[in-house]
Each structure stands twice: as C-alpha cells, then as structure tokens.
Write a structure and sequence with these properties.
The chain is of the alpha/beta class and 395 residues long. It has 11 helices and 14 strands. It is globular and about 65 Å long.
Length: 395
C-alpha cells in the first residue's frame, strides 16, 4: 500500500510540471501560458532566454536572428549541437524549445529586426527580450516598443561581466536616454559590437562565457516575470540597470536619467486595425482610403526612408524600392559605367508618384506594419492587420 501511495504521488507530480512554480504565492501559470514573448538574438544570451522561457511554460515565443550557427557558438549556447553548425540559430533554437516543453509554441524568423519586423508584431508582445551585441538594433527595438507602448528588457555581456536593463514607456529612462556621444558615433560608423575593440571585431573574437550569459538572461527573465504579474506590485528595474561584476561577484543597480527631449519617446496614440495586407493592397488604394476618412489633403507616412530610383551622371537609371537602411554599395554601382550612383528617397506618399500601383511590400514595408495617415500635424495610424495570420501561423 505504501509503495502504491508513493507511486501515485510521483505520477501526480509528473502530470503537472509547473507544480513547484505554483507554490510561489503571487504566481499565475495561466498568464505565462497565455503570454507572447519576442526574443531578439539567439546567441549566448538568447539561448539562455529561450531555455528559461521554455522551462517556465511561456505559451508563444518568437525568435528573431539572422545568423547561422558556428562552431564557436557551441561553448556558449546550451541549445546547439555540433550537428547544427551551418543551420540558422533561430530555427534550431525554436526546435529545441518545442522539444524541451511540448506546452510551448516557438517560431523562428530569419529577419533583420531593424527593417523586417512590423510594428504590429511588437504590439502583440507582452514583453520583448534582447540578447544583442548591436547598438543600432537595440535603438530600433527601443523605438519600436515605445511606438506601440510595450516593455523591453536588454541584456549585454563581456567576459565574466554583464548588464541587464528594463525599459518601460513612461517609467523612467529608455535606451536612447542612456546613449552617449560615443554610442552615436559607433552607430554612425556601423560598428556592431558594443563591447569589443576594433581589432577584436576584425578578428571575429567575441569574449563571452556561458556563465555570464546565464546570469544576465536569468535576471532578464526574472524581470519579465514581474512585468507579467504587474498587478502584484512587485518591484522592477524599470528605467534602471543591473550590473554584475563576475571577477569580484559585486553587483549593483544603476538608474539612468530620463531625457525629456529624447527622440524615442514617440508613442502612437491611435492605431486603427485595417483588413489590409502589405502584400496585396496598392499604395493608391491605401491613400484613397485614408483620404476618405481624413480628407483630400491627407498623405501616407512611413516611419523609414524608402529609396526609389538610382541615377548616374552617365544617364543610366535603375529602380531600388527598398529601405535606405538596406542599401548596399553594389546596389548603387552603375551597371553601365561602374561609377557610384545617387538615389532619390521618400518617406511619404502624396498621390503624385508614378509607382502607386506598387504594394507596401514591394517598397520594403514589412508584414503587419503600421503606417500613418497625416493631415498637417495630426496623424492617425493604420495597421495591416490581415498579415497577422501569416506571422502567427503555427503559434
């Protein structure tokens, strides 16, 4: 009888993998089950973020990363195996998450977070988690999250040290508030890694350890848990940063000053969901719909500069139709004479353009994005809500 009782108790425990978590007085497992979390970067920190989210039973995880797995990743990334070298990090990480916990739905996106992710995706997140080594990408995430009023948590590591910061619109400093002149200089030079010397970047050396990444990712996910239980009045690091010194095991919290004139503090006040897809509706039809609501003076605004056509002094012209940020040197090389071409760009559609039959997708606007309809200084924002099904398919 005693053995039967022990076996029954063991069986009951195995049926509920979250039993120990529910012992925490303020814990609500249903919130985690219903949560949607974005992880940007599937490297050392990203692996630990995804591992923790999976163990906790987060319902939906969107993993964004453009890179492939290299052999050096195997010393710092718990989700990758030697046989995975050459595969995309995001795909393997999402697969391993689903293997670890069948309750979790994870989806990989091989995409550039700066250009390829619509604001409507950010809008559907409970929290965004960053595991990046790139200032420009951090700034882009910061701006996107603020536009749609979503929190994000940044993590950074160097050797045995690390840093985790929580940014919540309206609650203290944002990422841009913390940036220095040096940060802006490095962004303008397009240097990607926030913690490396130029020589190390050139050699491809990344001084990180699995220990520091696990510590910082643990803090990030712990702060995420507190944000998901916001009504429990738990203290968070909003507008602050947790600094960890692995050499001495000192740690402390720093608070950054909120800059009132910060350009990232732009939140879209009114977002209208439209049954449009960036892949199917023409620019002229969007403009017509906006003008039917706002008047004939309305224009269609984008949150990015779009290159239209390149021109050469020799008379050669060619179409570009891509975000200016995506332009590469070879794209501006004249196919006729080989010299550098100049290009035109727009950030608004006024109705006089000769490419109004194109769709937003044709000119580089991502799925589930949000655009503005503006008359003077007054703007209403419109979401391409029909794209939601494609983004969240399988989740």
């Amino acid at each position: 009888m005693e053995n039967d009782t022990l076996e029954l108790q063991s069986s009951d425990f195995e049926e509920d993998r979250y039993a120990r978590l529910r012992l925490i007085p303020w814990w609500d497992q249903e919130r985690l089950k219903n949560a949607t979390i974005m992880v940007v970067g599937a490297g050392a920190i990203g692996n630990e973020l995804i591992k923790n989210l999976t163990l906790l039973g987060i319902g939906r995880i969107l993993v964004y990363d453009m890179d492939a797995i290299e052999s050096t990743n195997l010393t710092r990334s718990v989700l990758y195996r030697a046989r995975d070298v050459g595969r995309y990090k995001a795909e393997v990480a999402a697969e391993r998450a689903k293997e670890m916990n069948p309750d979790v739905k994870a989806k990989a996106f091989i995409a550039n977070i700066i250009d390829d992710v619509g604001l409507g995706v950010f809008r559907r997140m409970n929290v965004v988690l960053g595991g990046l080594d790139n200032r420009e990408a951090r700034l882009s995430i910061n701006q996107s999250c603020y536009k749609v009023d979503r929190p994000w948590i940044d993590g950074a590591i160097e050797a045995l040290n690390g840093f985790a910061r929580v940014f919540i619109p309206g609650q203290g400093a944002c990422y841009e508030c913390t940036m220095t002149e040096t940060d802006w200089m490095l962004i303008n030079k397009r240097k990607s890694c926030a913690l490396l010397t130029h020589e190390q970047m050139a050699e491809g050396k990344i001084p990180t350890t699995p220990t520091s990444s696990s510590i910082i990712a643990g803090i990030q996910v712990q702060e995420m848990l507190k944000l998901l239980h916001a009504d429990r009045n738990l203290p968070t690091l909003a507008g602050k940063g947790y600094v960890f010194n692995g050499l001495t095991h000192d740690s402390y919290v720093v608070e950054s000053q909120c800059k009132e004139d910060c350009m990232s503090h732009d939140t879209y006040e009114k977002i209208v969901e439209k049954p449009w897809s960036v892949k199917t509706i023409a620019l002229k039809d969007i403009l017509a719909a906006i003008r039917s609501e706002l008047g004939e003076r309305a224009v269609l605004d984008f949150d990015r500069d779009i290159s239209t056509r390149a021109k050469c002094s020799c008379g050669e012209c060619k179409d570009l139709f891509a975000p200016v940020h995506k332009l590469k040197g070879y794209m501006l090389t004249c196919p006729k004479c080989g010299t550098q071409m100049t290009f035109d760009s727009i950030h608004s559609i006024k109705g006089e353009e000769d490419f109004l039959d194109k769709t937003p997708y044709d000119i580089g606007i991502p799925l589930l994005h949000i655009v503005g309809g503006r008359v003077g200084m007054n703007t209403i924002y419109y979401e391409f809500t029909a794209d939601e099904a494609e983004i969240f398919e399988g989740l």
